[in-house]
Amino acid sequence: MYIPFSDYRSLPGINASLLKACANGLWSGWQSLHVEREPSDAMKFGTALHAYFLEADRFGDLVAVSQKFDRRTKAGKEASEAFEAQASGKTVITDEELEQIKRMHRRAAEILEFSSLLGTGLKEFTISGEMPAGAIKGRLDLMSQDGSVIVDIKTTRSADPALFAKDFLNLHYDVQFLHYANLARIHNPKLASVPKMLVLACETGSGEVALYDVTDISTREKAVEKYWRAFDTALELERTPECPDKFPRFAVPLTAPSWA
What we know:
Layout: H1 5-10, H2 16-22, H3 26-34, H4 41-54, H5 59-62, E1 63-66, H6 74-86, E2 91-94, H7 95-109, H8 112-120, E3 122-131, E4 134-143, E5 149-156, H9 161-170, H10 173-187, E6 196-203, E7 209-213, H11 215-219, H12 221-237
Parallel strand pairs: 1-2, 5-6
Antiparallel strand pairs: 3-4, 4-5, 6-7
Helix pairs in contact: 2-3, 2-10, 2-12, 4-7, 10-12
């Protein structure tokens, strides 16, 4: 179902954002759960892009597009202050950023597998429910009516397949998609198989987009193990009233990375 984001946040249950943080350890999970951070410019751009793609009818209520104001002049300062008052509570982006979002939308519309689902699927769709391990929830970008196809929209510095695959794993998007797959089964208990999982990678430098099928990479054994480790860490957070140590209080072996 569609509900306002503020109402979604109040729902009980573990969400994908917390699990991605918990995949980096208990300290990262605690920070995600308890420490409010101001959104970066990249995060604001991503929020605006999602609104344009998935909530076009509410875009003007969610996003304000800023002109260039010359605050050295009285008129420019007054216009800037008037804009800030009008934009209060909205995500603010520039004209140039809006044009890039529009380009990405046009390019995505040329991908039939994405555009057809965008026309018929469930957008910004909230699912919550119980698993044996605990309550979960999620707000899915785009899903088919029966839950058999899930699409998530990501901004990225590079949509090149090799580079994006590396980012996909490092940022724990595989954990996110496995979480969404569990939610799809709650939405449709008769779902016969694992949902098809797609990611629309929107390259911020060029405005180009690529659609990738990430079902295999998200369901491999390592991804499943990582998901449940993150889930256990999220449950441990419920028993962690104070911020844990970021690093162990004892010496640990420092190993070379795989590329060294």
